[in-house]
Structure formats: C-alpha cells, structure tokens
Specification:
The complex is a heterotrimer of chains A (about 325), B (about 250) and C (about 290). Chain B is built from nine helices and ten strands. With about 250 residues, chain B is an alpha/beta fold. In chain B, β1 and β2 (about 15-25) form a beta hairpin. The longest helix of chain B is centred in the middle third of the chain and has 13 residues, at about 120-135. Residues about 245-250 of chain B have low confidence and may be disordered. Chain C has one domain (about 5-275): ABC transporter involved in vitamin B12 uptake, BtuC, CATH 1.10.3470. In chain C, α1 (about 1-30) runs antiparallel to α10 (about 235-255). Classes of the chains: A mainly alpha (about 325), B alpha/beta (about 250), C mainly alpha (about 290).
Chain lengths: ~325, ~250, ~290
Amino acid sequence: MKKNLLIMFLLLIAAAALPFIVSEYGINLAAEICIMAIFAMSLGLIMGYAGMVSLGHAAFFGIGSYTVTILGSHLSNFYLLILGSIVLSGLVALITGAIFIRTSKFYFLMITLAFGQLLFALTWQLKDLTGGADGMKISSTMNLGFGDIVSPLGIYFVMAGAAILVYIFLRFFVHSPAGKIIKGVMENESRMKALGYDPRIYKLLAYSVSGALAGFSGSLYGYFNLFISPDLTNWMFSGQVMIMVIIGGVGTLIGPAIGAGLFIFLQNFISTYTERWPLIMGLLLVILVIVGKGGIIHWFDLLRSKIFYRRSQKRMEYAQNHAQKEEVTN
Amino acid sequence: MSLLKVGNISKSFKTLQVLQNVSVEVQPGERHVIIGPNGAGKTTLFNCITNVLSIDSGTVYLEGQEISHLPSRKLVHLGMSRTFQKNNLFGNLTVEENLHLALTSTKSYRYQIFNALLKHEDLKKDTDEVLEQWGISSRRNVKVNFLSYGEQRLLEVLLAMAAKPKLLLLDEPTSGMSPAETIQTAEMIKKLPRSVSILIIEHDMEVVFSIADKITVLHHGEVILSGTPEEVRNNEQVRQIYFGGGAKAHA
Amino acid sequence: MSIFSIQLLTGLAYGMLYFMIAAGLMIILGVMNIVNLAHGTLFLISSYIAFTFISQNVGFWAALLLAMAGTAILGIIIERLLIKRVYGKELEQVLLTFGLTYIIADTAKWIWGTEMHTIAVPALLDSSITMGSMVFPIYRLFVVLVGCGLALLLWYFESRTRIGAIIRAGVDDRDMVSALGINVGLVFTGVFAFGAALAGLSGVLGGPLIGIYTGMDSEILVTSLIVVVIGGLGSWKGSFIGAILIGLIETFGKVWFPSLSMLIVFLLMVVVLIIRPQGLFGREVA
C-alpha cells in the first residue's frame, strides 16, 4: 500500500512537471493521453474485473462527446454538460446492459459490437441532429468557474486532474464490497449465485459505471478536440481502446492507462512518418499476440520476478556451497 | 413442523425420468443422509430443491414457506445453503478472500460501492472466527488453487456455512478423499452445531452410519425407504438393490 | 404491387448474400470457438481480387473461382501461421483477428485506393424476366438460388457425411475426436479455409449488388454477426432464416424509414435476445 502511494506521488509529480519539459505539441499529446487513459480505464474495469469483453465501448464515448456538443449549443455550464453526458451514457449502458448481460461471452462481444455500429449508423443518418458525416464543432468552451480555459496548458491540467480523479474513484470502487463481489462473479458466477448473490445486478452495475466513465472521457474529448465526427463511435475505435487495455494489462487499474499512453504516443509518432499506421498497428498487434504475454504491466512483474529469482538462486547456491565447505571442514 | 418438506417432486430430462414422486422431510437439528447407487438422482434432487433445475411437479417447503419456484440465490437468505459435489470455489482468490465473499452475501453493505470491504470490522471478525475455529488461520493467504484437495473440500463446506444456514445441503463432502481425509471430514460434520440441520448425500457407508439420524434410500429416481439407520440396515429390499444380492451391509 | 415484389426479390437476394457470409463466420465460431473479426475483410479482399482479374479481362466465372481460391489460401495461411497458436485464448483471438482486419484492409487501401469500384453483372445473367409490369433482374434470382443451394449443401454436409459428423462431434467434445485418431488440427484448418472461401464467394457475388468500397468490411461483419446472434449458434436453419429476415427488413426499411434501417435491424436483434437469449434456433446453453 505504501509503495502504491509512492508510485502515485511520483506520477503526480511527473504529471505536474511534464508541461515544463515538453513542447506545446507534447502538451496536447499528453492531454489526449489523459482522456484516452480514462476511456481505457473504463473498459479495463469491465474487462479486468467483471470479465466482460466489449467491442462497442466507443458507443459510450460517442454519446458523451455528442451530448456536450449538441447540448452545448443550448447551455454553457461546463459541469452541467459533463454531468449530463455521464448520466446519459450511464443510463444507456444500464438499459442496453440489462439485455446484453443475459448472453455469454462470445455473444456479448458480438452484440456490443453491433450496438456500437448502430450508434455509428445513427450518427451518420440523423444528419439534422449530429451533422452526419461532416461532424460537428463544439461551441461552448471549458469553464470550471474561473474563466474560460483555452490554453493547451490549462486544458492539459484539467484532463490530467480528471484522469487522476477517475483513477481514485476506480480504486475505491474495486475495493468496495460491490467491487469485490463483481470480481467474485467474474471468477465463479454459479458459486456466487449459490452464495445468495444476484450476479446480474453486479454485472449491470459494473457495465453502467464503465459506460458512464466512457461517456465522461468522450465529453472531455469534445472539449479537447473542439470537433467530433461519427468515427468516434466506430467499432474500430472500440477495438483500439481494447488494444490499449490489453497491451497495458488486463486486471489492473493503471495498466490500461499506461496502455493508452503508449498507444497514443506510437500512433502520433508513427503517423508523422507514414500514412500506413493502420498496417503497422495491425502488424504490431499480431506480433504482440504471438510473442507477448499479458501486457506491459505484467512484463514489469515478469522482469522483477526474474531478477528476484536470480538473486534468490544465487543465495541458494551460496548457501549450498557454504554447507558443503562446512561438511568438508568437519 | 419439519424444516424442509419435499413433497412428491418429479423431474425428467426429455424422455428420461430422473426423479419420480420423491418426498423427503428434514426435522430441525436432524442429520439426514441420502444414499443410493450412481445415477439414482441424488444430485438432481439437490438441484431441484435449490431450484438450479426447475421441477416438473411437486412442492418444496422450507419452514412452511413454499420455495419451489424461488431462484436459488434467494434460498440462502431464507436459511438454506448448499455445497457441490465437485469443488466450486474461487480458485484464483485466497482462502480469506473466498470467506469474505461468502460472509458478505448476508451483510447489508453488499451493494456499497464505497468504503473498502476490508474496512468493515464485523467481516474481519467473522472471518477470523471461521479461520480459527477450523484451524486454518495459517492458510488464510494461500490461493485456493494451491490448497490440498481435502482443504478445498473443507472450504467448500465453510463457504456454505458462512450465511449461518438453518439447513445445510452437503453434496458428497467426502468424494475423492483419502481414507484419512474422509475420517476428518466425518469428524468435522459431527462437530457442526445442532442448530444446523443437514441433508447430506454420501457414498461412504461408514460415514453414513456414523452421522445419520435418518436415511433415505433413492433408487432409479424413487424413494425406496426412509427410516432410521437400523431400519435401513435391516431392510431386505435395500440390501437387494443397494448392497447387491443379500450381502450384509458393512457397517 | 410490382414494386413490392421487386423489393421482395431484392431483399431475398441480400438475405442470401448475408447468409453466405454469416455461414462462414458461424462455421468458424461453432467449430473452432473463434469470433473471426477479419471475416468481413476477407469478403472485401475477395471482391478486390475478382475486380482486378475482371479488369484484366479474365471472365467473371474464372475470377469468381480465383477469388475463392485466393481467400481460401489466405485462410489457410492465417490459420496455420497465427490462429493455431491462440486456440482457447479468447482475448488473444480477438486481438489477433482485429489486427488482421487492419493489416488486410489497409493493404487493400494501399493497392486499390479509396474510390468505389463495381463488378459488372456477368453477361450470361445480365437480363431480366418480365412478368406483366414486373421486371425481375436474373442476377438477383441467381444469387437467391446460390444461397438456397449453399443451405442445402451445408445441410447435406452436416447431417449426411462423415466429415460433418466429425465436425459436429468436434463441437461437442474435442478430446473425444482426437482420441478417435482424427487430426483435429487438419479439420480446423479445413474449416477455416472453407469459411474463408464462403466469404470469398459472397464477396464476388456481392460485387454487382453492393459494389466495393472502403469500410464495407465493417458493415458486412456487423450484419453477419447480427445474423448469427438472431439465428443462434450452430444452427444453419437459424442463420438462413435470420439472414432472410435481415435482408428483407433492410430492403423495405430503406424504402419506408430511410434513416433508421440499421436501427430496425438492431431492434429485431434485441427483441430476439429478450425472448430467446440463445437465438431463434440456437442450442440451449445449460
């Protein structure tokens, strides 16, 4: 626990110091990473703690960003708009989740994918509301109550703050009674039923919280990018956030956030050199699957255990040699 | 009033009749053993009582309340818990975490999304109590997958006991155990307080006769006999079908 | 009335097309337990292959065979080289097939660009039947016939042949099949190649109906996923009926509610899920 606090503290310092080290381009990138980190953490919650693999999570991201954009032309209160998109995406998750969680894993994957594509199709087809393929510009600016925040630095700090808040919230959530029970349902659903729990309630809770957080990240993205388009709801985007979760490490909270950072960084870095980022990403994925094991977070663990293993082995060798010597002297 | 009253339940899978007009009664405090050859429908009976399988006809009453169609998760809250013939645990979690999950199911804070689970002192106390009572405190932080088979079987029962049930349904607690472990388990069952009634499926005749107040013999989905151990031991029909051709029961 | 029957034929033709592609997806899912997210991309690549051959003056039918063979070979390579390594690992499978969609689709974009292409209806079928005031394009009738033929073939294959029995057994009990001395790996490669070839078949036959364009692969994938969900896992009958339903709903939906056709299809899926979570004809999951 103390080590975790230390890591948190170091991350905080790094987050605060970052803008003074990198260029404006870097600050923008860091802000985008923070937003995607929230999105990835939201998916990481249901994938790693509830065992639900969704390929339609961009739907909630899209609901969040379209909500602030569409409502933003009528009202300008930042908090109200953010709250509105969280509530709306959470509600949609609650209603659709109630149907989706009746199915088993492959079905869940397929159905969430279909649901994401439904929203994608709707954002295209409902031109009057969403602007169709042309997308929409967000008209309101970010204002937390002390003036408009328009500088990249200010935006970055808001996004970093939001990411930290979400992380803390999720830490509380997964350690809460409901959070532990959700994990129990993932581990063994039939036994949880026999113990007197209703697994559906807990799965639905996890799914709704996850959807609401994804909506939150989407609404922040609207403020960040100032322009939104149907692509935000496409299943390829859902797939990308799933990649972030998996390369970061399923079953941890911070892993997906780290995965998001690596993914966005690589995407931006490689895209400056070539148009073939999708192809390269596909190749990297395939290579990752064939050689990689369990995501970055677990690679660290693996590395650590290897080092410790060597050390303990050396100690054992030393002890054995020592014992032999003693035997000889005796 | 009997604690559990199973009245004339029947169950078939397509054309196969697995249970036919089965009636069983369990009195408060009773140790009631169900015996019968493989395929007699014993586990199916448990699954029908706990409504994991829905019954075709008949009724199940717990303390006078009809529970025939209540979902299995609700039965725990009415005072009935069960174990499984095959270990059904949380293998990737530790012994302590398994107990936490089992003990929380009856707590009012089971829907809370704040306040870490481990901040609840009563849960810690209950967990420590169970661990100490059964002498497994030293194993509390061991992942269940790394426990010995016998320890896992014990935990299987402890999880069911966590909700402080009035009626405990044990599905072959000694299956797959070594003779030594079997004796230990029988001792453990005997140690359970009489405030808990037990309906138990068991194969090992020594265990059966050492713990049973009452025995019900199931054969081809029908109840052959329900009576005291003495009556069962001396029943000619039971010997014929269960012990095979008049051989004496080895008990 | 005449417009109605022509729409009916169009809906059926689309339905059959969906059946062909969903059948490939389902056989891979049912036998190998893999959701092949690259299935729509195989459909796309097959259209492009056929388009290229046809523009080099290879006839439609030869191009059809070449494209099917091409996707089947691609399927074999993918299965032998990659998918073989991730059996039973759900997340890895999703990641792998998702990566493949990027690789194949982006390569296709590289080679063929982003403009829309079409495959012309073969000369043999480029006419129509006139009945009173109704004009039925023969090509659509042909697609319906091919779809029905495939359904019959699959039914025969599954219920009347040794390979069908092996595959059915493999679905239920994999260890049993390998204990019988049957090379499960070979069966799986064959199944994957067959599923890919079906994607190839529908890709070429769909060319004259829906054209070839970037992003088509996602649409096709989603439609076929919905077909499988509606019809139920491991059920030809279900996929067949589900595909026809979707083809009809989409066609008529486009006429009546042009902006909401996808929503109607999705709502159909939701209704089926609420009434029968395992799909119309799916096996009951115990």
